[in-house]
Here is the input.
Amino acid sequence: MSNDIFVIAEHLKGKTDDITYEMLGKARALAGSTGGSVVAVLLGSGASGLAADYAADKVLYVDHASLAEFNPEAYGKALAEVINSQSPQIVLVGNSSQGMDIGAALSVDCNMPIVAYASDMTTDTVTSQLYGGKMSVESGIDGDRYIASVLPGSFPADAGKGSGASVEEVAAANLDGLNITFKGLIEPQGGDVDITANDILVSVGRGIQNEDNLEIVQELADKLGGVLSCSRPIVDSKWLPKTRQVGKSGLKVKPKVYIAVGISGAPEHIEGMKDAELIIAINSDPKAPIFDYAHYGAVGDLFDIIPSLTEKL
Amino acid sequence: MNIIVPIKQVPDLVEELEIDSSGTGLDREWLKFKVNEFDDHALEEALLLKEEHGGTVTAIALDGGDIDKALFAAAAKGADRVVKVTGGGDTPSNHEAARMFANAIGGMDYDIVCTGVQSVEDRDGQLGVILARYLNVPQISVVTGVTVAGDKLTVIKEYGGGTVAEFETSMPVVLGIQAAREAPRYVPVAKVRRAMKSTELEEVSGGSADVNTGSHVNKMFKPEVAGGAEMISGSDDDMAARLAEIIKG
Here is the structure.
């Protein structure tokens, strides 16, 4: 075992995702405790240039045609090979769409424990945000090594940006006979409003209970000259189109005013709206995590407060 | 096409969560449980595929709580078989749960395992990903669309910002479903009651869950509030009036 900290780099459409820099910054602090190096692991095809601004001691780069775009199977195999041969003490991977395919798989393939939804970690503990952010759980690691899948937004990205890391190319694992093939990326269809371009968002969550009730929040949005956005369950229920979703798997927004109606504030949602200039939350649960991020909060029945608010504006 | 849908129950987050006397877990005595919402989507996607292409849907769950009711609800929605995996502990880790599911599913004839992409208590990683490794089949998670293309599947995986990736995969495969193509169907209680009478709830042993999760809970605690909102009090009308002032600036 080495005492190095490995960070699995994540990229899409030729750009490194912020989660990579966030993890590199944290890895530096962890490496200070273990006495090891910060090592970024980058997979791609002709993509080593992406690592130019990684604040790492070393970049391990695996080049293969099958790694040009993310592929759960190919990336899983290639990463397992790198980690098993290098035996780092700690591996950080994003708790993101790509990272979800990788982290738990590496835990089995590399026989290392994984702790998910991680928002902080030391050399032997990992703190997770579970139950939609309503509980924190500190896990102790039984052995010396672990994998943490890190919630985006947990650490500043700037600390992970630098230059001058040496790039060492390592051979890819055998990637013949893959069962999964990447076919292409599909961009969202236009036509609907662009919620990232709007100054006022009235955002609705599970608390609205059913589709018919959307009318009262739409009326508030209309009165304010804003548009309706929402949290994930509303889109999964097909009450609003995907283009309206704020959060991890939706869009990141920074409006002047963000009114969260019946949204409890799971970490995935917070990630998408925490930088709004003015956040107002209305929820029936006084302990809803959304109130930790809002500037103003009101606890009560949205079916009473919202129509009254619309009337007073 | 034979599809297996592992489902599990999780605490209903609408309820207030309390920490138990050990300080390492939830106080489960008064907790209300419900089927993991993503598992509902996994079941819906499986039922849609069956309706389009024929075959069977098997809902499977580890024993515990009122899982029988959840399985009968799956039957009422259209699952052909419902299977309870016996022999596990009260709160298995996802590694342990995946091991038992793999033991139970390994001998079955299946093309797809559809499971919820995540749950609110995946401390040791997502179940579907671990299960795929134990079954030694490929997996894709954060799936929002599945279509059959000959003897393969076209699978849509969601990234951030509305971008999705399209993959082609052979079967068998494990899919971690984020959202079914349709909203999960609703089933009235009366239909669940009928399913309880007419459906055979099969039981299979989960065998040994002898896997090393490799970590333990030191402590559970309520997250510290960073800044916190300025809370507005009063009647609904008072609160609305104050909010209107704030918004108008």
Summary: Residues 195-312 of chain A form a domain with the Rossmann fold fold (CATH 3.40.50.1220). DSSP finds eight helices and 17 strands in chain A.
